[in-house]
Amino acid sequence: xxxxxxxxxxxxxxxxxxxxxxxxxxxxxxxxxxxxxxxxxxxxxxxxxxxxxxxxxxxxxxxxxxxxxxxxxxxxxxxxxxxxxxxxxxxxxxxxxxxxxxxxxxxxxxxxxxxxxxxxxxxxxxxxxxxxxxxxxxxxxxxxxxxxxxxxxxxxxxxxxxxxxxxxxxxxxxxxxxxxxxxxxxxxxxxxxxxxxxxxxxxxxxxxxxxxxxxxxxxxxxxxxxxxxxxxxxxxxxxxxxxxxxxxxxxxxxxxxxxxxxxxxxxxxxxxxxxxxxxxxxxxxxxxxxxxxxxxxxxxxxxxxxxxxxxxxxxxxxxxxxxxxxxxxxxxxxxxxxxxxxxxxxxxxxxxxxxxxxxxxxxxxxxxxxxxxxxxxxxxxxxxxxxxxxxxxxxxxxxxxxxxxxxxxxxxxxxxxxxxxxxxxxxxxxxxx
Length: 433
Hints:
Blueprint: H1 2-17, E1 20-27, H2 32-48, E2 52-58, H3 64-76, E3 81-85, E4 91-93, H4 95-102, E5 105-108, E6 113-115, H5 129-149, H6 154-162, E7 166-168, H7 169-174, E8 180-181, H8 185-192, E9 196-199, E10 202-205, E11 212-215, H9 220-228, H10 231-250, H11 256-272, H12 279-297, H13 303-318, H14 331-357, E12 371-374, E13 384-388, E14 391-396, E15 406-413, E16 416-421
Helix pairs in contact: 2-3, 2-9, 3-4, 4-5, 5-6, 10-11, 10-14, 12-13, 12-14, 13-14
């Protein structure tokens, strides 16, 4: 029902305001969340019957499977799709090449570049040369197919994959990689007015000169998924989850750390499954945690802590297996996290263990070690009264104790205290039992 009202409202606004162009923006790596956003943008455009959908693109690349979903949506789109690499200084790198080539209209702003489309799959750079060649050949064929369908430079598309070549906006226009250069979105829509495109439903003449631009931002769910697909965020969630669970285990009943840790681990698991994970790095992080825990119980004079720091550092560096910089964990995140881990395990958990080992201060066990005063004479084998914390208790002792003698509580059985004098019968201090 909501969609019906949206379509009716749009139909009324189209009548009053004329043609509408939907505008979406993608900045950053291409991920499953990005693919969901772009395909949703095209679907909205088709349902509303807009004049065109414009995607402003600025990306260093991303996951190949997510890119395939976007390209498939572009090639099947029943509404004109325009990819505009902007603003100045932006790039369409790696996955951005496939996305730009697949658009009905490809445009770039001055001072932008496109290229370097060597494939990086879900598992990062293939370690086996045969597998790497298979992935490259598959991506090259994918690029050629897109270029042929959109009548663009097939040779350039293949070289961008095999040799990672890159071109400026002027070079790309000269080599028939893009259709035009435009300094702004308004100038782009003016230049496209009257151009005819071939859609699956038939020819389409663009009427974009007077079109109203309508922004379509990501919804909160898509923004959250984009945030989670950041390797730095995934790494921080993983470490926070480990800290929270361990703190809860060493301090049962704290509740909040355990809840935060469990939620963080679930989010980290979701984020990591979208990233090229190296399980050796993950194992090293878990080994580091075990070494930190052992340091709290084993006297190693700091050797276990040093080994834990090394394991955590190596594991953090190896966790994301990708040759591209934007898919790796930043050193500015790794180093503070390693330092915080050392502080956490040596201080916070150490305090928790100390609290568990500390003598009870309340209840029956909390009476042991306290000082009392004899009120009634006590002899071996008989009971007498002592005053403890303002209360009278029955007490027993192995020596004769006269009223007024200061004694120490050494044990308790029910309501009976076992005491000994603070000084031995010969005047020397009594020894602790």
